Amino acid sequence: MAATKKSLESYCAPRFGGRRCWSASPGVSSRTLSALRALCSGAHQIAFARDALKRFLFGLVFVVSPVVNAAVLPEERADTLYHSYSGGGVTIDGPSILVRKNIGNTVSLSANYYVDMISGASIDVQATASRYTEQRDEFSLGADYLVDKTTMSLNYTNSSENDYQAETVGFGISQDFFGDLSTLSMRATYGSDDVMRNGDENFLEHAEHRRYSLGWSQILTTKLIAELSVETVSDEGFLNNPYRSVRYLDPNSGTGFSYQAELYPSTRNSDAVALRAKYMLPYRAAVKTEYRRYADSWGIEADNLEFRYTHPLESENLILEGKLRFYKQDGADFYSDLFPYVNATNFRARDKELSDFSSTAIGLGVAYQVPERWALFNRKNTLNFYWDYILFDYENFHDVRVHQGGDSSYLPGEEPAYSFNAHVVRAFWSMWF
Amino acid sequence: MIKRVLLLLPALLLLGGCESIMPEPWVKPYERHYLADPIMSFERDPVAAGFMNHVYEAREAARGAEGGSGGGCGCN
Q1: Residues A126-145: pLDDT tens digits?
Q2: Considering only residues 324 to 353 of chain A, which have any Cβ-Cβ distance to chain B shorter than 8 Å?
């Protein structure tokens, strides 16, 4: 894997003019030349450091990497997806349509329409409210502009619910370099949300979200690619759910506890770093692994690990896929399943997504490439079906529904911990133009 | 000590660049047929990958660094 000295120089030479690159550079001042020569004259004294640096750079390249092929526009294709999530008493399903089309060789436009139709009653709703149905509609438009090895992108997204409106704009840029073995990408997005509450016309709050991400993808070998992603997110404004409540011990209540509205801090800053790699096995199949570490200013820390195996069956026009994913988090500092009394803390939450919990997911999928004689419009068509099964296991979110039948055998805070499983289905048809 | 190292680092980088410390790209364009295989893409289907990120982000506190298919769900 290590490059030879000769090969290193042969790479540097055309780009920097070889070892004496600065002496041939007309734009460099004599003062700068003197400084550079002085540095060179002392080079032997720091040769050991340079060697160490060389090893460090090699190591860095191997530890941190992602993939990207030479800069090209995204594939022209249309995807029609039906998605479904069912678990914990809630069903969310709907369609999503994504169309991407190029204009010439430098511009790619995309449009996405996505719907979440929500029905049922989660454990929060069963404990403190009634069943409900609602719908979220999301529209996205995007444009990518390719210039040489640089791709710039702009995106706009509008998400609409009867009690939540969100708009997001984003700008990204990516650059291929190092013989197209490496790609560096950056992205910034800004989101502005209006939060409402059904049944309370005077309730209107606002929230803003800023996301900054950096990605480095690297081809490591002829069969191995990797990617490092880093993202920081900054939220400000009304960040809690206007319907959700926390519970606290209340001796005057028949169950021994009562509810009050939750209250979150008005800012949240988070950092996430992920390293993923994909490797082609000796036969035509690929394995992917991914690890992500997350931490935020609310005291939440999380890790997730994923393995994926992709196996084509060429004679059957099939691609099979299996997935295993583990997730674990430590909850927010201001989370409690049961507060000791009303207004016990400055901030309070009983959202199970902010508790200590873990989840395990397995996934299976199949993609079928339609034979040419049946392909629509004589294009490449695929039919795809993916199913994921997720088990959520909460450590300090207790199931208060045990009190609903008048059962007083559980003391407040000693109810069984909550857990549930969910089925996630993705069924879609893809067509390449 | 740290300050000295920080001062020395830019000089080392400059010197190193001119003295060929950077490695040569070691995978040639004609050696990338395995990498060009669609099964080697991190996410072959953007619409499906984006949906799974939405599922995770809506039910987990962690968010971000999903790679090309991330970007937030714009929902509560």
Answers
A1: 777 656 678 999 999 999 99
A2: 327, 329, 331-332, 353
